């Protein structure tokens, strides 16, 4: 049985995050705060030996990965960043770049909700993703099934491309990690957050038979207390 330990990092804060705009397949640069926070994440991960570095193919994730790689002192300095579109953020279609409160009201209203937070708490992230796809007139928004399909493809990429026992870093996105947690984390692990914070780290044991979340959305300030997790 092949087994990998994978650390999924949410990218740093971007201008869209700061302005509370929907940010899926669209992109925005990291803010100064985002870069500063990522340096904390990088410090917490710098002594971990990674056998490979991956990110989604969106620039905010690639820039985040580069900051972490530059700080790392335990891995082969010749390792190159690999990108995989399977790890990109959930696609929001026509709602990309729009204020998230406006989108929350439009998507949630038919179900009796006027914001994403209440909708997620009461109905779950999968129904919210499905409702967003229904409300999107462009046809580009992703349903929960769409996201889980490419998530599985991304996991398969990691298993095929890396040797058993490897430790892998993957920089991805908040919505992607939240859905990973919905499918594989325990209720206790999910209880602390609706959306993983920028720069947080989620550790997963990935095998060709199962996926197990070891640690969900650990804040970057906590990393140096237990670097082995």
Automatic annotation (TrEMBL):
The record marks 173 as: Transition state stabilizer. GO terms for cellular component: cytosol. The keyword Hydrolase applies. Pfam families: His_Phos_1 (PF00300). CDD domains: HP_PGM_like. Substrate binds at residues 10-17, 60. Keywords: Hydrolase. The active site is at 11 (tele-phosphohistidine intermediate), 89 (proton donor/acceptor). InterPro entries: His_Pase_superF_clade-1, His_PPase_superfam, Phosphoglycerate_Mutase. This is Alpha-ribazole phosphatase. GO terms for biological process: negative regulation of glycolytic process; regulation of pentose-phosphate shunt. The keyword Zinc-finger does not apply. GO terms for molecular function: fructose-2,6-bisphosphate 2-phosphatase activity.
């Amino acid at each position: 049985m092949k087994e990998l330990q994978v650390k999924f990092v949410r990218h740093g804060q971007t201008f869209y995050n700061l302005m509370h705009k929907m940010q899926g397949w669209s992109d925005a640069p990291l803010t100064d705060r985002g870069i500063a926070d990522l340096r904390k994440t990088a410090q917490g991960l710098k002594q971990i030996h990674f056998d490979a570095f991956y990110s989604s193919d969106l620039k905010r994730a690639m820039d985040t990965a580069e900051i972490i790689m530059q700080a790392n002192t335990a891995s082969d300095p010749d390792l190159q960043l690999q990108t995989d579109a399977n790890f990109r953020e959930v696609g929001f279609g026509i709602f990309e770049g729009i204020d998230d409160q406006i989108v929350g009201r439009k998507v949630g209203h038919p179900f009796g909700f006027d914001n994403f937070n209440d909708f997620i708490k009461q109905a779950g992230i999968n129904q919210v993703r499905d409702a967003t796809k229904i409300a999107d007139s462009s046809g580009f928004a992703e349903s929960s099934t769409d996201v889980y399909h490419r998530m599985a493809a991304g996991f398969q990429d990691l298993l095929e491309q890396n040797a058993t026992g490897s430790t892998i870093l993957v920089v991805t996105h908040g919505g992607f990690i939240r859905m990973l947690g919905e499918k594989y984390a325990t209720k206790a692990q999910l209880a602390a957050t609706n959306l993983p914070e920028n720069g947080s780290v989620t550790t997963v044991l990935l095998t060709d038979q199962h996926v197990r979340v070891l640690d969900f959305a650990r804040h970057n300030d906590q990393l140096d207390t237990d670097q082995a997790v």
